[in-house]
């Protein structure tokens, strides 16, 4: 698997400024399970097939993502810039990943065995699943129903385990869409995002979007309201739903702020959605 800056001004026509719709608001808390770091907060709004997320980082920065009209806008308030990812951009970036993967494989094939091994280890340390995907080592990911249930923010959910290369990677506690206000709309929006990004994420392998809420939704057939990360069999962090309610969402929430400049997306330069 937040509060916008005080100076944030959003572009809108007079009609949009005056219009708000009955939408859905979700708030989640994310924390490390060891150490004294304070939890961070994520906020999400859904309305009419549109989504806005705000994630407060520990350093005070806020990550903002807006999805509408089959396009994802990644906003960077500090630099007042944004990137746009639509289906054509995802396909183009997927092609760049495929080309980079081919070149990497050709280069490594000509290396002596010891040098090739050092390169593999270096790439895995630097890039995790993304680098592994470039080298043809995307982890094999499966999810299975544990039969366990938990209650999160008063909502019952079923725990699924995500296994990568034989090791537990995550626990996803999925709630039925009918148990969440606007649950069907949330599911539909997440599925549209997953479909739009498929060309890019498939190129990087299954780990590319593992931390995104739309990952694995078709398999678990529910809305993940609790996600635990695991390493060496031990839970290291979790994101937990803390509030969900129906809420009117101003149409301006789904617009790019005034004064922001677009930055072109390219693989290797901030291409990953949501970053």
Describe what is shown at a glance.
This protein has 275 residues and is an alpha+beta fold.
Question: Describe it for me?
Answer:
This protein is an alpha+beta fold. 28% of the residues lie in helices and 39% in strands. It contains 5 helices and 12 strands. A 12-stranded mixed sheet has the order 7-8-9-10-11-1-2-3-4-5-6-12. α2 runs antiparallel to α3 and α2 packs parallel to α4. The chain is globular, with a radius of gyration of 20 Å.
Largest sheet: 12 strands, mixed
- Secondary-structure element series: HEEEEEEHHEEEHHEEE
Q: Can you count the beta strands?
A: 12
Strand content: 35-45%
Mean pLDDT: 78
Give the overall shape, derived from the CA principal axes. Answer: globular
Low-confidence segments, ≥5 residues, pLDDT <50?
1-21, 127-133, 206-210, 269-275
Helical residue percent band: 25-40%
Global structural class: alpha+beta
Radius of gyration: 20 Å
Number of helices: 5
Widest beta sheet: strand line-up: 7-8-9-10-11-1-2-3-4-5-6-12
N- and C-termini, Cα separation: 12 Å
Question: How is this fold's topology laid out?
Answer:
Blueprint (H helix, E strand, L loop, with lengths): L13 H5 L1 E13 L7 E8 L2 E7 L5 E7 L2 E6 L4 E6 H23 L3 H22 L6 E12 L2 E10 L2 E9 L7 H22 L12 H4 L2 E9 L2 E17 L10 E2 L13
Parallel strand pairs: 6-12
Antiparallel strand pairs: 1-2, 1-11, 2-3, 3-4, 4-5, 5-6, 7-8, 8-9, 9-10, 10-11
Helix pairs in contact: 2-3, 2-4
């Amino acid at each position: 698997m937040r509060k916008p800056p005080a100076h944030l001004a959003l572009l809108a026509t007079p009609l949009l400024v005056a219009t708000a719709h009955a939408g859905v608001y979700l708030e989640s808390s994310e924390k490390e399970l060891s150490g004294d770091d304070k939890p961070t907060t994520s906020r999400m709004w859904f309305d009419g097939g549109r989504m806005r997320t705000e994630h407060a980082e520990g350093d005070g920065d806020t990550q903002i993502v807006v999805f509408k009209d089959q396009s994802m806008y990644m906003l960077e308030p500090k630099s007042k810039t944004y990137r746009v990812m639509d289906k054509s951009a995802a396909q183009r970036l997927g092609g760049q990943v495929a080309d980079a993967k081919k070149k990497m494989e050709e280069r490594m094939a000509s290396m002596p065995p010891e040098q090739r091994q050092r390169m593999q280890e270096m790439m895995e340390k630097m890039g995790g699943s993304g680098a592994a995907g470039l080298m043809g080592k995307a982890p094999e990911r499966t999810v299975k129903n544990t039969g366990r249930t938990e209650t999160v923010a008063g909502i019952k959910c079923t725990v699924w385990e995500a296994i990568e290369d034989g090791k537990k990677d995550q626990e996803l506690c999925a709630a039925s869409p009918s148990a969440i206000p606007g649950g069907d709309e949330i599911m539909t929006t997440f599925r549209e995002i997953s479909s739009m990004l498929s060309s890019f994420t498939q190129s990087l392998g299954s780990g590319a979007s593992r931390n995104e809420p739309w990952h694995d939704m078709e398999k678990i057939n529910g809305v993940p309201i609790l996600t635990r990360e695991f390493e060496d069999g031990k839970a290291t962090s979790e994101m937990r739903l803390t509030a969900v309610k129906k809420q009117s969402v101003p149409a301006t929430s789904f617009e790019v702020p005034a004064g922001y400049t677009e930055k072109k997306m390219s693989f290797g330069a901030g291409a990953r959605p949501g970053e």
